[in-house]
Design goal:
The chain has 567 residues and is mainly β. The protein is 13% helix and 35% strand. It is built from six helices and 35 strands. The strands form eight sheets. Strands 9, 10, 12, 14, 15, 16 and 18 form a seven-stranded mixed sheet that branches. It is globular.
Length: 567
């Protein structure tokens, strides 16, 4: 307001100067008018630069429908977005805003969540059942969010029911601003590969099986970009970025390209030390970007993804086609790693933060010395697979999560009692019987927490946290004890949003809770998430302020006990 008042005074003074006859102007008046004119020009230029500096908006309208495709050779019902399977790819630049109108033409309520987008101060747009009412059939909701201070390789996916088993997922890539450098030469092209296990059984039948207390069988196959076979074209001698995301339901994958090395450059928004790999393990929900130079003789080469740590190995192939090739891909497929969990853990430890590289902001990643911060709280979460009332469930610290009919975020905002309790789950493993509850862990805004995932089962785990990335400071076999802290990487651990935990092992992350909201911490293995292996972190400050969190959206959907409340 004060700046507008000064603008008004300046313009008024300049107008008076222009209306005076030249002969009536004194030398002093001419000098004064010149100063006004100079200030006006500067103000005009500044206004133009401010308008140009505003972060751009991108607008989308997506319609979600059923369709019939044959990803594994036989017709089945899939979920399409604007007729596409997988859904449309979103390409953004750091800080761009998304306004996306999602129209639900399914016969069930539906939501999308934005896997890895931090939703700064904006858990209202996170798209999970703890924050949002699902979009009813034949209705719509408009998401509004910003890729604030982020770059990297991400995905989106359905968070409702078992819709993910039918599709509805896609790629979301955030590119750097032109004023921010990247620690590698610009690639000659950019390809995204969405890889995941797949069932021929419909998502409704799979959900019914889980509801009856039965676990899911092993998947029927692997898909790359929704197909059993696909092709990437490139010119000999050029270097391409390949973005890899595991969008599957349950299985880790190994990715490799016949005759070509993979230079790892980015993991879920972190620029990493650029090591070379023959193959990469990518666990459920994770993403990574590699540079591949087409430096072999001109022919076609196999791109291979195969399941890891499974008795039955599923394999999907694609083709890397040199544009001057006259020979099809041939020879045996490149072999997967000969070793299992230990090999994978050693590879995971080799992923390190590039301390001197910028990410989305001009300051180097290493300028934040996370290892010198003393955690305010330690939380240990142990997963388990109990039977509750004779049915298979999955639990965290013996509590199996159930979704209430009212999103936790709305219950919190409107002070609706009886929806959740911050005493429903403990921050340490429990020896008591397993139970069901709507589990929420209370934390304070600006806490710096040490979070240990303890896996005492014989299967892989994969954990995802909405609203944040975190430093993965330690992996180890057996039981975590405080003495394990001696082996933490407190210098150059990478940040990411989804981390694996090996069987009968532990993984430790450090999280700076600088983003107020209600944030979902869940198993990325979708059967386990569906049957209760999740909870919410309530990151809170008692002073309601726009500096901490945005207001409730004017178009918010209300459901459950929130119906009838006024914004």
């Amino acid at each position: 307001m004060q700046r507008k008042f000064h603008q008004y005074i300046l313009i008024s003074s300049l107008s008076r100067c222009l209306t005076l006859e030249v002969n009536h102007k004194t030398e002093a008046m001419r000098s004064t008018c010149f100063v006004y004119l100079l200030h006006f020009v500067i103000l005009a230029l500044l206004s133009v630069s401010l308008v140009q500096a505003e972060d751009a908006y991108k607008y989308f309208t997506w319609t979600v429908t059923y369709g019939t495709l044959s990803p594994l050779g036989s017709p089945q019902q899939v979920i399409l977005i604007n007729g596409q399977f997988p859904g449309p790819q979103i390409d953004l630049v750091t800080n761009e805003n998304v306004v996306l109108n999602l129209v639900n033409k399914l016969d069930q309520p539906f939501l999308l969540t934005w896997n890895g987008i931090k939703q700064r101060k904006n858990s209202w747009q996170d798209g999970v059942l703890g924050t949002n009412c699902p979009i009813p059939p034949n209705s719509n909701y408009t998401y509004k969010f910003q890729a604030k201070d982020q770059i990297g390789t991400y995905t989106y996916l359905p968070s409702t029911q078992l819709h993910k088993a039918a599709g509805g997922f896609g790629a979301l890539n955030v590119y750097h601003r032109s004023v921010i450098s990247v620690p590698y030469p610009y690639p000659d092209g950019d390809f995204t590969l969405l890889i995941g296990d797949w069932y021929k059984t419909s998502h409704k039948a799979l959900a019914a099986s889980l509801d009856s207390g039965k676990s899911l069988s092993f998947p029927d196959g692997l898909l790359i970009n929704g197909q059993a076979h696909t092709t990437i074209n490139g010119d000999q001698g050029k270097t391409y970025m390949i973005r890899i995301s595991n969008v599957g339901m349950s299985t880790s994958i190994n990715f490799r390209i016949q005759g070509h090395a993979l230079k790892l450059v980015e993991v879920e928004g972190s620029h990493v030390i650029q090591n070379m790999y023959d193959s990469l393990d990518v666990h459920v929900g994770q993403s990574a970007a590699v540079l591949v130079t087409l430096n072999q003789s001109p022919k076609d080469y196999y791109i291979v993804a195969s399941t890891r740590f499974s008795r039955r190995i599923l394999t999907a192939t694609a083709v890397l086609h040199y544009t001057n090739s006259h020979s099809p891909a041939s020879g045996p497929l490149p072999s997967p790693p000969a070793y299992q969990y230990h090999w994978s853990l050693i590879q995971a430890r080799s992923f390190r933060w590039n301390l001197t590289a910028n990410a989305a902001r001009p300051n180097p990643q290493g300028s934040y010395h996370y290892g010198k911060i003393t955690p305010t709280k330690t939380i240990i979460l142990a997963n388990s697979a109990p039977l509750i009332n004779g049915k298979q469930r999955y639990a965290v610290n013996k509590v199996s999560y159930v979704n209430p009919d009212t999103p936790l975020k709305l219950a919190d905002y409107f002070n609706i009692p009886g929806i959740f309790s911050v005493n429903s789950i403990q921050s340490l493993p429990s020896n008591g019987p397993a139970s069901v509850a709507t589990s929420v862990l209370p934390t304070s805004l600006h806490d710096f927490i040490e979070l240990v995932f303890q896996n005492n089962e014989n299967s892989m785990q994969s954990w995802h946290l909405d609203g944040y990335d975190f430093w993965v400071v330690g992996y180890g076999f057996g039981q975590w004890i405080p003495a394990k802290r001696r082996n933490y990487n407190l210098v150059d651990a990478l940040t990411r949003h989804t981390v694996q935990v090996y069987p009968n092992s532990w993984t430790t992350i450090l999280v700076s809770l600088d983003n107020q909201g209600m944030w979902n911490l869940r198993s990325a293995i979708w059967e386990r998430q569906y049957l209760g292996q999740q909870l919410y972190l309530r990151v809170w400050n008692n002073q309601r302020s726009l500096a901490n969190e945005y207001n409730i959206p004017s178009n918010v959907l209300l459901c459950g006990k929130a119906v009838g409340h006024h914004l």
